[in-house]
Write the structure tokens for this entry.
Amino acid sequence: MSKPNDYDVLVIGAGVSGLAAASDLTRAGKRVVVLEARGRVGGRVHTERVGGHTTDVGASWIHGIDDSSLHDATRALGMREAEFTVGSFQAGGRPMVYFGPGNERLSAVAADGFIADVAALDPELERAIARAPEGASYADAVQSAVASFVANRSWDEDRAERVLEYHRHRAEEQYGAWWDDLDAHGLDDDQIEGDEVVFPDGYDALPRALAAGLDVRLETPVNRIAWSGGGVAVAAGETVFTADHVIVTAPVGVLQSGQIEFAPALPEPVARALEGFAMNEFEKVFLRFDAPFWDDGVYAIKRQGSAAQWWHSWYDLTQAVGTPTLLTFAAGPAARATRDWSDDEIVASVMSSLREIYGAAVPDPESARITRWRDDPWAQGSYAFAKPGTPPEAHTILATPIGGVLQLAGEATWQDDPATVTAALESGRRAAQRVLFGHDAPAR
Ligand SMILES: Cc1cc2nc3c(=O)[nH]c(=O)nc-3n(C[C@H](O)[C@H](O)[C@H](O)COP(=O)(O)OP(=O)(O)OC[C@H]3O[C@@H](n4cnc5c(N)ncnc54)[C@H](O)[C@@H]3O)c2cc1C
């Protein structure tokens, strides 16, 4: 008789996905071990507490709390929240101040006109995406929608350019990708149901609560997963763990890098689905000031025009975090170009943009924090996006159970709302269901 496996289930990665899976399985009586490369849990949900500042350097928002299982979870934990509804890229919806291409402050009428143009394009864009041929990019779909709009509604070049620019920035801020690099359907899931919220005391309360009582082995990077009908043998250096099942929640970038050897290699259709995604370039730039110098009572400061190609949106986090703080993003091309810059160089570049609209007297920030997720070996980017030619179903395909013993889970494997904490949570729970009730348990 062959030797029994050490555990029922091994979970690779102690981010929200892995912890959600492990927690459901442990509660169901399974013997579970979570193997985590880092010295902490939470993965891309990570809160820093430095010098009296609480900063979510990974995820901050629940993008829409209506009908949200994630919001149910954070409420059940009693996590203090603050409404911040323009966390996803929106033209309006909450008070914002707009600066036009000539650095002039847009009047309410002009800003409303632009917001209405963005809204008016939506149905045409939906149609353009629906009829986009395989391999078309988000840029192709937007350009075709705007072209027909120009023809039908006589937008002048400038009006059309403002809307095109809005969608370029949307692809960058929502997916950290240049709009040519994102599939036409890449933002299909970008629907916000209800208010958005952030967590002033830190989002990490969620992974910490999920991890409570679990057997989590920190600083245990997995480098090999051998799988067969009899189960799995997972190696972390010299140590080998065996189990009946393994759930792998390492990010797409880690899987693509070959850091984890699969023996045999991941089969179809999972292997092909994995190739359809890329890790993005999306970094947060937090600027903390002694006192605010910007408009009072606005959620966001938006700048239009070619001078604002990189730095175009600043979010006022003051209410949420308690100190005068602006957040902007280095996303897509801006993140790529500034990847090797020092923090001081990035701050100087952002500040020079702010001074172009608020004047030379704007002071330097008292402190700044710039994330470097792209250089993080256990993330290799902030989240995954679908390359042109990758259909929305590729998310679900990525989670196809393999050989009755192996499943991928994590943000990229959830089709409804990929690239989010919701996706991480739901995909982890689905993986646990499939271990408990068989691999036909519902997939979404
Ligand atoms: C800057 C930024 C902003 C974001 N903003 C939002 C937001 O506002 N709202 C939102 O919903 N989402 C946001 N996200 C996305 C969200 O954080 C992720 O989708 C989610 O946290 C991913 O969870 P996960 O469990 O799938 O992956 P992860 O959290 O990455 O967990 C995977 C774990 O696997 C570990 N691991 C990797 N390789 C190995 C290995 N070889 N062996 C062992 N362990 C390994 C990693 O260390 C990690 O802990 C943001 C992300 C970033 C980075």
